[in-house]
Amino acid sequence: MRIANRLIMQAMNRDAVQSPLPGPQRPTGVTIIAIVAAAGGLLSLFGGASRLVGMGTGPIALAYIVIVFGILGLALGAGFFTGARWACMAGIVIYIISIALGIAEILYGGNVGLVGGIIRTIAGIVIPIYLTRPKPKSFFGKGTTSPAP
Hints:
This protein has helices at about 1-20, 30-50, 60-80, 85-110, 110-130, 135-140. It is mainly α. The radius of gyration is 17 Å and the shape is globular. It is built from 6 helices and no strands. The mean pLDDT is about 85.
């Protein structure tokens, strides 16, 4: 956990140093997905940990994978909130991959995994679609710029 916190802080400091001028205002949708990503990360950590201590059902390997995605969710939440350039593409990739994890949770994760899997699958579809829209892309510095006439 300390390593994840250190990586998040380094990423936030690097982004702050690289962009001294104020960027575009954070869209409300980006704020929402930052909160969803961080909350999902925390819930994934608790869900995976509950399986590891014997309070849940499902394969142990799935619990470890869920914990890894929990750590990624916390990092993405911080990246989305701060507008880190890496967060947009990382979010798209991680959330698309998380669709498969969501399906595995639905099939093998018991009652808790069923609920988490449904939420993860929906987020895995909705968040990447949103991140490819013009306002979020612009916020993360990924928008297209046309040359001045």
